[in-house]
Design brief:
about 150 residues; alpha+beta; 2 domains; two-stranded antiparallel sheet
């Protein structure tokens, strides 16, 4: 322990004699530690942590291929999804979604906002609940029924 204390005192004397070197060394260490923390945070969130869904290892996403347009991951048409859903013998459940944009109007100029249209069973398939509001009811997915917001 005595040897360690002597080494620390010697290092502090050396650092106090060369403040520029000390500042550069401390700054380099701080940047290195900060960069490592940032990279690990991203890797942990993207690769190491499991998805926040029930039975996340059983989730799959199915795409169509459009050879005429050279697309490997083409958006599935609603008619094809319904056909797959009706003929499904492999999956416990199937849910569909697609990206879209809606116009938000109010007191100012209309604004385009991104959104997604989903089938009514998406939340139950993922095993999650909406943060605000309520889940979809089964009759909301039936064509021709009226939608209520409240």
């Amino acid at each position: 322990m005595n040897s360690l204390w002597q080494d620390v005192r010697c290092a502090l004397r050396t650092f106090s004699k060369q403040p520029a070197f000390t500042a550069i060394a401390v700054l380099t260490l701080a940047l290195g530690i900060g960069a490592n923390s940032a990279v690990f945070g991203v890797v942990d969130a993207v690769l190491l942590r499991s998805l926040p869904y029930r039975q996340e290892n059983r989730l799959v996403m199915v795409w169509e291929q459009n050879f005429q347009q050279g697309q490997d991951h083409n958006v599935v048409s609603p008619a094809n999804f319904l056909n797959w859903h009706d003929q499904n013998t492999v999956f416990d459940q199937m849910a569909g979604f697609y990206d879209g944009r809606k116009s938000l109007t109010g007191t100012g100029d209309p604004e385009q906002i991104p959104g997604q249209a989903v089938t009514t069973n998406l939340f139950s398939l993922l095993g999650i609940s909406p943060i605000l509001g309520r889940d979809f009811s089964a009759d909301e997915g039936v064509p021709g029924t009226t939608r209520s917001c409240c």
